[in-house]
Amino acid sequence: MTIQTAWQWGYKNLQKKSTSASLDTEVLLSFVIKKPKEFLYTHPEKKITARQFKKINQKIKLRSKNWPIAYLISRQGFYGLDFLVDKNVLIPRPETELIVEEAIKTIKAAEENKQKIILIDIGTGSGCIPITIGKKIHSHFSSSSASGKKSVLKILATDISSPALKIARHNAQKHKIKIQFLKRNLLGGFLNSPILNSQSTLIITANLPYLTAKQMREKTIQKEPRQALFGGKDGLYYYQQLLEQLNKIKPAQAIVFLEIDPAQNKKIQSLIKKILPGTQVEIKKDLAKKDRLVIIKI
Ligand SMILES: C[S@@+](CC[C@H](N)C(=O)[O-])C[C@H]1O[C@@H](n2cnc3c(N)ncnc32)[C@H](O)[C@@H]1O
Questions:
Q1: Looking at ligand 1, which residue's alpha carbon is closest to its atom 17?
Q2: Is the CB of 129 under 6 A from ligand 1?
Q3: Which end of the chain has less Cβ packing within 10 Å, N or C?
């Protein structure tokens, strides 16, 4: 069998099941034969082995049962970096780049002012948020090392899921970013930790499960872990818990970044007002001009 026949066969089997059948077939085919997509166009006559065809067949079948492409090729791009993903972690979304961007701005400003910084990413999943932040901060400070500036960022990341932490550790190693990964229920276990009451500026990032029961019915998310998506009746169960933990911990100085669903804007602001009165709150919009990020200054 040639690339072209496998390609046509894959497309034929997917066209009624996927709205992106053509692209899906290309991506799966090039993944299985371990060649860039351009190779498919320039060498359609090349033969593929029976083993490769069997593998393509398996992946096309899974795709037709709505398995996301990212799981089928075990990778997802995020903020220009490549992350290993599997069914135990949420597939990183483009809208989550906003939390990374805003946290980077804050960390750079704090470091310019020679403050020590501790970043804790809660619900880290694939580790995409702290790894990307670490990577960008690291390259920023190594490129300005001629001016004598040195990054003083310490990174921790938590998740309740052990399999997710395993993937996150792998990604951190791959991108050579030093992160302490901990299995925790949100900030639980940090209650009396000196980390939170040190002289350092504390930055917390969290993209916690925030979908409602109704949103959970969406077809495209069925293969992703429920534990990564479902945020209780109004989607704010975990954020409420986290705000209550922060109220108990009372860190000396902290900036907290929370990704939300745009519809939660008002409700989360009133929760913050109730649980953490007197804190400064700002809402940022994503590229689609939707309220996506809450920034709390404690
Ligand atoms: C929406 S996913 C986000 C993953 C990743 N941060 C991202 O942006 O792609 C939420 C993550 O929170 C984790 N999680 C759920 N409940 C948690 C809890 N109580 N404590 C810590 N992590 C939790 C899930 O396992 C999942 O990895």
A1: 160
A2: yes
A3: N
